[in-house]
């Protein structure tokens, strides 16, 4: 019995009975004016209940979360812009780009708040150093892989073309080769996380990244102003020269993989040219006159190569079908090339139709 009483006393210390509810007083306010209503309220005196704090204007949970995310982004963008200033050391500027802009959520916030152009404005002097130029070109490429609007302006496009014109081989006097390898490795890992079908991960350079970014742009993604500014800033020149380079590789390479790569390279360039020449007589006339009609000559050469490839693979398919009815492996290989030939020819016809319209 004694043990039971002691246990009961211990339980009383742990499990306390809830305190009685506070006394509530009903208060009725009689109006003093004829147009006022009677007001009834329930009130509780402070001495009848525990201490408390009244919090007014409490925000909803979703509002608090949204405010916290916006504040976090504001702090991050201020940190990024302060780290990208030209007064900062080079390593700090490169680290700021690599740390924050590698996060997809942060890039989404950059677009949502219209800060992409501001970031590139801060990096306007990027072409003065190979390390910073490579990081800037990588940021442009990653933004273009997000499959959203680039939110570029004329200054950003001008910076992209200046990076495109940089020397492919870095100058040993301007940078540390060890640091360059570290930066390239970080960029390579970052590029592996996005769609990089046309990117040569083993040969990452500033010019290569800038060209891939430029080829991913169209007037639909960048805006109608893109058609004119691309001509005025010299972007069309680089694309036409790239077409010529790809067409020349068609005549030099016999390996199927290299042929397909050259066909795809020419097709991507021609798609951009087709986009910027639709209902644009200025670009049409410029491309016709550029380097004595280099684009038209390259297009004609590309068509000849496509004709030869069509004839070659048709004959090879016939030989295989005659020798062995089970020709599925060879058919797959040739159809892969045939699809590239078809896409390239479609792009060539699109450009030539635009250039010859009313010309």
UniProtKB/TrEMBL annotation:
PROSITE patterns registered for this protein in UniProt: WAPL
Pfam families xrefs: WAPL (PF07814)
All residue ranges annotated as the WAPL domain in the record: 45-359
Coiled coil (UniProt feature): none
InterPro entries on file: ARM-like (IPR011989), WAPL (IPR039874), WAPL_C (IPR022771), WAPL_dom (IPR012502)
Transmembrane spans: none
Gene3D superfamilies: Leucine-rich Repeat Variant
Family as reported in the entry's similarity comment: Belongs to the WAPL family.
Record protein name field: WAPL domain-containing protein
């Amino acid at each position: 019995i004694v043990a039971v009483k002691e246990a009961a006393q211990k339980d009383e210390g742990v499990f306390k009975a809830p305190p009685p509810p506070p006394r509530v007083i009903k208060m009725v306010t009689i109006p003093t004016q004829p147009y006022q209503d009677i007001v009834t309220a329930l009130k509780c005196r402070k001495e009848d209940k525990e201490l408390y704090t009244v919090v007014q204007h409490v925000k909803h949970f979703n509002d608090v979360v949204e405010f916290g995310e916006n504040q976090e982004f504001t702090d991050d963008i201020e940190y990024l812009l302060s780290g990208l200033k030209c007064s900062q050391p080079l390593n700090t500027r490169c680290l700021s780009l690599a740390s924050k802009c590698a996060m997809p959520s942060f890039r989404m916030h950059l677009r949502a708040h219209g800060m992409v152009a501001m970031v590139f404005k801060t990096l306007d002097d990027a072409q003065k150093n190979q390390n910073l130029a490579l990081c800037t070109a990588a940021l442009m490429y990653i933004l273009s892989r997000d499959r959203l609007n680039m939110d570029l302006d004329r200054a950003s496009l001008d910076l992209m073309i200046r990076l495109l014109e940089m020397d492919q081989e870095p100058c040993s006097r301007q940078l540390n080769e060890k640091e360059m390898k570290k930066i390239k490795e970080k960029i390579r890992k970052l590029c592996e996380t996005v769609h990089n079908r046309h990117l040569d991960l083993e040969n990452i350079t500033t010019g290569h990244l800038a060209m891939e970014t430029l080829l991913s742009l169209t007037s639909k993604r960048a805006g109608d102003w893109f058609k004119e500014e691309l001509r005025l800033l010299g972007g069309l020149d680089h694309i036409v020269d790239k077409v010529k380079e790809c067409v020349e590789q068609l005549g030099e390479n016999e390996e199927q993989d290299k042929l397909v790569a050259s066909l795809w390279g020419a097709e991507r360039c021609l798609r951009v040219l087709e986009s910027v020449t639709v209902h644009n007589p200025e670009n049409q006339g410029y491309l016709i006159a550029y380097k004595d009609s280099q684009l038209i000559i390259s297009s004609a050469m590309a068509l000849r190569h496509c004709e030869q490839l069509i004839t070659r693979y048709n004959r090879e398919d016939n030989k295989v079908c005659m020798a062995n009815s089970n020709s599925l492996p060879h058919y797959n290989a040739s159809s892969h090339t045939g699809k590239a030939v078809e896409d390239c020819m479609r792009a060539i016809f699109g450009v030539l139709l635009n250039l010859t319209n009313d010309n």
